[in-house]
Write a structure and sequence with these properties.
Layout (H helix, E strand, L loop, with lengths): L40 H15 L3 E5 L21 E5 L13 H14 L14 E2 L13 H5 L6 E5 L7 H4 L5 E7 L10 E6 L7 E5 L3 E7 L5 H6 L3 E8 L5 H4 L6 H12 L21 E5 L19 H12 L9 E4 L8 H9 L10 E3 L3 H4 L8 E2 L13 E2 L15 E4 L5 E4 L5 H4 L12 E6 L29 E2 L1
Parallel strand pairs: 4-5, 5-6, 11-12, 12-14
Antiparallel strand pairs: 1-2, 3-9, 4-7, 7-8, 8-9, 10-17, 11-15, 13-18, 15-16, 16-17
Length: 490
């Protein structure tokens, strides 16, 4: 086939921990002070209490090595070493998103932070930001800690995708928490009677968590697998939003709390043939304020209901992304260069990449601005016990379009993020999709991707805060630079 091999980077030793030198906020959340969104004395007292509660609670983070699933039989699974490392990290100060028109959501966020004593107070009912994960103590305070997002003490149930080592789940979730794991056939057993597995025949490359708490549902879509190592030592991008309980009768009618996100989430589960009783509880929540759009890929082999050949499946794979561009830019997509940062690039088929690009921009430039690692940059991670795998190609990479992939902190931190956007950021995609035909499918009426993927699309005027995970301005490859395009095992 045209795509010989497609895998992501695999790490099997602790990576060198970086520290951000640029402490300017990426504005992913708003850290509240007495001058931000609080005007009355009572509000100030509530905020002080929230901060006091957050500062009185510390936690242990245990790092374990993650093993990404191999995306082609031609590559062996990445080597795996156990990492036994515990570190005590202070909690972040309490912070919640705020806006004048969202007073009720702000009050609910404060209330939930006070009730749950969440160390980071990260209730987020707006969902208009992209977050980077916290790796170093010198990272900006807006970077998130995944252990805070999961908040296992208060978590009641979860639906999760992106499990590469179920053994790690014992360190991330409590055994009495009800968990549904959606994964592929190679998944081993689970260790709790409250945990169940829904298996697929295709590779589950999607990274998603639906976390149910007493008063809200947290939807998390990320580039990160569910792994303590990936959460704490590898750069990731994440979107999440909290949805409060809606009309209690809507769980029966599926209408009053409905939104495009909810409908697409149900469509996604149905294509994977997940029994409806496994996700019926999500209809209890009010999704009406969600502004982002779901973008997923599901192989035809997973879908029990055949899609008619006479009609384009505009909800799946690349066709979904193309249909969203057409919806929000009816006169044609912006005439701008596109920036795509990913771990794997399907450079073996130049026509596929050109068709992909031309469907998303009207610019006359020949290709993307591809943010992708050089062999020299990634050689820093090639220590004993570490395996990095990238696409093998029959054709050369488009070297004139490649830019170095350096972490936004400027430190030696491996990027596992995936994002696509025009330079103006009039729209943005983040999620699990690499720039490959396996992830997006063919550029045709029925794309039929080969992987199960998921991400979110930010329409125009929705995105409020996004800091690129890589260094800007972009640095072009030098004449001597070569892309990391082979399997490295040392």
């Amino acid at each position: 086939s045209a795509d010989k091999v497609e895998t992501e980077a695999h790490t099997n030793r602790p990576l060198k921990k970086g520290s951000a030198t640029n402490t300017s906020p990426d504005a992913t959340t708003i850290e509240l002070t007495k001058d931000d969104s609080f005007t009355s004395q009572k509000d100030n007292e509530d905020l002080e209490r929230a901060i006091e509660l957050s500062m009185n609670e510390s936690f242990l983070t245990t790092n374990h090595v993650d093993e990404d699933e191999d995306e082609d039989e031609e590559l062996q699974r990445a080597l795996k070493l156990s990492l036994q490392q515990c570190s005590t990290e202070p909690p972040q100060s309490a912070k919640v998103p705020s806006s004048e028109e969202e007073d009720e959501d702000l009050k609910l966020a404060i209330e939930l932070s006070l009730e749950t004593k969440n160390p980071s107070g990260i209730a987020n009912f707006l969902g208009r930001s992209v977050f980077l994960n916290k790796i170093s103590e010198l990272d900006p305070p807006q970077h998130i800690d995944f252990t805070d997002l999961v908040d296992k003490k208060n978590l009641q149930s979860a639906i999760i995708m992106g499990v590469t080592d179920p053994a790690e789940l014992q360190n991330i979730f409590k055994k009495d928490t009800r968990i549904l794991i959606i994964t592929n056939d190679s998944a081993p057993q689970v260790w709790s009677k409250n945990w169940s597995v829904w298996k697929t025949s295709s590779l589950v490359h999607a990274k998603m968590m639906l976390l149910s708490f007493p008063k809200f549902l947290r939807v998390i879509i990320s580039s990160s697998n569910i792994s303590l190592l990936e959460w704490t030592q590898v750069r990731q991008v994440t979107w999440y939003q909290d949805f409060s309980l809606g009309d209690t009768q809507a769980s029966q009618t599926k209408s009053k709390n409905s939104s495009e996100l909810l409908e697409d989430m149900v469509d996604f589960f149905e294509r994977l043939s997940v029994p409806s009783e496994k996700y019926q509880h999500i209809f209890r929540y009010d999704f009406s304020k969600c502004l982002v759009k779901l973008v997923f890929s599901v192989p035809q082999i997973e879908q029990k209901k055949e899609k008619p050949n006479s009609k384009e499946d505009t909800k799946n794979g690349f066709n979904r992304l193309k249909s969203l561009i057409s919806r929000y830019f009816p006169n044609g997509p912006p005439s701008e260069d596109l920036i795509y940062q990913a771990n794997t690039i399907s450079a073996s088929n130049a026509k596929w990449m050109e068709d992909f690009r031309k469907s998303l921009t009207s610019t006359k430039s020949k290709t993307f601005n591809l943010v992708y690692p050089t062999e020299k940059d990634y050689s820093k991670f090639l220590t004993q016990g570490t395996a990095l795998a990238f696409v093998r190609t029959r054709e050369a990479f488009p070297l004139d379009s490649l830019y170095r992939c350096i972490d936004c902190s400027g430190k030696d931190i491996l990027l596992h993020s995936k994002c696509l956007f025009p330079r103006s950021k009039k729209w943005l995609y983040i999620g699990s999709h690499n720039l490959t035909r396996k992830a997006w499918g063919n550029i045709s009426k029925n794309s039929d991707p080969q992987n199960i993927e998921i991400g979110v699309f930010f329409p125009p005027d929705v995105l409020q805060d996004f800091r690129e995970p890589f260094t800007t301005p972009l640095q072009k490859y030098a004449a001597s630079d070569q892309p990391a395009n082979q399997l490295f095992i040392n």
